[in-house]
Write a structure and sequence with these properties.
The protein has one domain. It is 84% helix and 0% strand. It is an all-alpha fold. Helix 1 runs parallel beside helix 3 and helix 2 runs antiparallel to helix 3.
Length: 90
């Protein structure tokens, strides 16, 4: 799998996790809701930053930049934490 496909798959996985949590948002405690709101702002930034990458041909992981990779990691960790808290609450 190419680096570009790897990162696009990673984005897709985080997007699916995000969508799942948005559907369950009404169950969240207020502190988790605040964290989800913060992650949503970061998600919008990631989507905006990746738009040109999706259009570019032959994009490599290096071209994504450390900031984008760090943001993607932060989003995955945050969404996973909220998902796990929701599972425990249900």
């Amino acid at each position: 799998m190419s680096n570009r496909n790897h990162w696009m798959n990673e984005v897709t996985n985080v997007r699916q996790l995000r969508d799942e949590l948005r559907l369950k948002a009404h169950l969240l405690r207020s502190d988790l809701r605040a964290e989800l709101d913060h992650l949503e702002t970061q998600w919008e930034r990631l989507e905006r930053d990746l738009a040109p990458v999706r259009e570019a041909m032959g994009t490599t992981a290096r071209e994504l930049g450390a900031t984008t990779r760090d943001l993607l990691h932060t989003l995955r960790v945050g969404y996973t934490r909220i998902r796990d808290a929701v599972k425990q609450a249900v």
